[in-house]
Known about the structure:
The chain is of the alpha/beta class. It is 32% helix and 12% strand. It has a seven-stranded parallel sheet, sandwiched between helices.
Amino acid sequence: MTNDQLTFQNPVTRYPKIEPPKQDQPEPGLDADLKPHADHGEDTYRGTGRLEGRKALITGGDSGIGASVAIAFAREGADVAIAYLPSEEEDSQRIADLITKEGKKAVALPTDVSSAQNCRDLVEAAVDELGGLDILVNNAGKQIAQESIEDISDEQFDETFKTNIYAMFWTVKAALTHLQPGSSIINTTSVNAYLPSPTLLDYATTKGAINNFTKGLSQQLASRGIRVNAVAPGPFWTPLQVSDGQPKDKLPKFGTDTPIGRAGQPTELAPAYVFLASSESSYVMGETLNVNGGMPTP
Ligand code: NAD
Ligand code: MG
């Protein structure tokens, strides 16, 4: 591996500045159809045994950020269950194959997390198939850009909240009976929690809620030996962005207004999740780890 995460290199030039062509995919998008393709660490993430024997459930683990986390967790020694929508079978199969190639168990669980019962069933299925659970990554997300609050339908507002924050509540509640001391919950939030994009009013509001939920819950669970943290990505090149997550005219310049000057590739997020999942972060609780190419955060 020449471009792995452990090699000394210039972060500015580690990946090229991409200029994605205008493109549209129905929601949720597929990594398989993303132009240009993103790096999930397939050829670049090097494992060092940091999650040996762990059992992880990752929602939205079929593509983008969740896929890069799934690959990294498997290379660090974990068995991994991924949840995704049924239309994402192609992406999920590719990631499941990569997990299996590491000699780890891959469990594929097509589930719409915008319903409470589905979240409960998801956790039970993951626990059954993995033989337990000690890492929960709440990463599934819905992001539909709209110019004005008047363009956000009541249905969109409701679905965004159900997918992004209600699902987190339902999934954590169901998982708690299975999580032993030493377990880790990691929630994907966003730089939008502090710098809300005017075109992402509903989405950004859920991300603010996720930060708050993470900090409150971490205090509840600290004495039980369960750590809760969040990762806040900046602009990462994933299918979310082309399935109406961004206004189309913004795509060619996606990520270039960051101090680093380029969009992130999903695998550049994986080490943050590995760190928060593993015991090396035993004293880290209620933290939001920002991985955003240098944008200042509170
Ligand atoms: P992505 O499209 O690859 O992943 C999002 C996933 O969410 C999809 O793969 C899908 O499986 C899942 N999902 C959506 N609705 C669902 C539902 N109802 N039920 C079950 N699963 C559902 O895009 P991504 O960018 O990797 O997004 C992952 C997370 O990262 C999201 O929470 C997103 O808000 C967050 N995030 C992304 C960026 C970015 O720039 N890409 C920035 C900040 C935060
Ligand atoms: Mg997907």
